[in-house]
Amino acid sequence: MHATRRSLLQLPLLAALAGCTTSPVVQGSPGPAAEPIAPTRTSQAAAAADWVAGFAALIGDATLTAASWGATPQHLAWLDAVAKQSSAHGSRVESEDPVTGGTVDFPPASPTPAQPATAATPADVVALLTARVAEGSPVLQAAIATAGSGAERLLYASIATASAASLRPDLPPAEGGAEPAPFADPDVSASLALALGHVLALVRALEVGLGRLSRKDPLLDAGTLRLDGARALRNQLLAAITGDAPEGGTWELPNAMSTPAEIRSAWSALEANVLDAIGVVVAADTTSAATWLTAMLAQVQWVHQWGGRLPNWPGWVAR
In the record, which residues are listed under signal peptide (predicted)? Predict the structure, then answer.
């Protein structure tokens, strides 16, 4: 076989390439390793994390001093449930991405509660926690206002709602329930329509229940009051919807609603559904998130009124 002029000219190049691929020697000095990017968060998110840590510290202090203020087994079970709830919240807000969680990017400080736990009675403990929740309201609202996504807005709204719901020793946080996870920002119109549907279902169940209660039933007065409030919430949602409001539908009652106990249970379940649906509106409506957070927090009273309990993450449902 005769070599051509072209092939002879290519030999030096091929040899050079072969030398580059087979030589184990690395020429030159390695460059400096890239500096890891430090996690960041807004000042509002940091303040929210500090508040969560302070609330947890107050719960811990109340637990340690339980004997001094006359805690009963019910109180201890309540504090244990609230401590677990606060731990779940803390594990999220200590992460750069609290919605996903899983990492502790900002180790919590060891805060001193804003008010020393000088409780002498169970009522004193509830008062201390109530004051702490009130202090956290503007902090969590600021975190919602500066959140980077609908899921993050719902996370902080959920912490605010869960904390407000944790003040009843007889109705401690319920175990289980969905946890925060990423989701696409919901559409405002669709979320308002969803909430309206749940409020209409509640209104219908209130009307049915009131019609079936005896005139001497203690639920009657509270149910009548709630019906007025539910209708006002319905009107608030209708006013927020631009364009044609969705038509009312038919709703299946949660149970037969044939006894006061069934009526109470149905109302509680539907109130929780309304709370969850309003949480979606908080996530969706960046301009009116504070307004809908107020409505979400107001639901806590009515879930409790009918004997219901809320999970660690109110507003989060399986998606």
Answer: 1-28
Which residue carries 């005896």 as its tokens? 214
Same domain (yes/no): 209, 264: yes
Cβ neighbours, 10 Å, residue 234: 17
| 246 within domain boundaries | yes
112 and 213 share one domain? no
CB 186 within 8 A of CB 153: no
Phi, psi of 311 (to 5 degrees): -80, -175
CA distance readout (Å), 170 to 183, 241, 276: 34, 38, 22
Q: Which two tokens stand for residue 4?
A: 């051509």
pTM: 0.86
Question: Last residue of a domain, which of 109, 132, 165?
Answer: 165
CATH code of 215's domain: 1.20.1260
Q: For 42, list phi and psi in degrees, rounded to 5.
A: -75, 160
Please provide the size of the chain in residues. 319
Residue 243 φ/ψ region, left for φ over 0, alpha for ψ in the -120 to 50 degree band, beta for the rest: left
Q: What is the DSSP letter of 311?
A: B
User: For residue 56, what are the domain limits?
Assistant: 43-165
**Contact at 8 Å (CB) between 292 and 285?**
yes
Mean pLDDT of 286-313: 98
Backbone torsions φ then ψ of 174, nearest 5 degrees: -85, 145
Judge whether 25 lies within some domain: no
pLDDT at residue 18 tops 50: no
Name the domain count of the chain. Answer: 2
Question: Within a domain: residue 18?
Answer: no
The pLDDT value recorded for residue 134 is: 97
- Residue 252 parent element (H or E): none
Local structure of 138: helix, strand or coil: helix
Instruction: Kindly report, residue by residue over 85-101, the tens digit of the pLDDT.
Output: 999 999 999 999 999 99
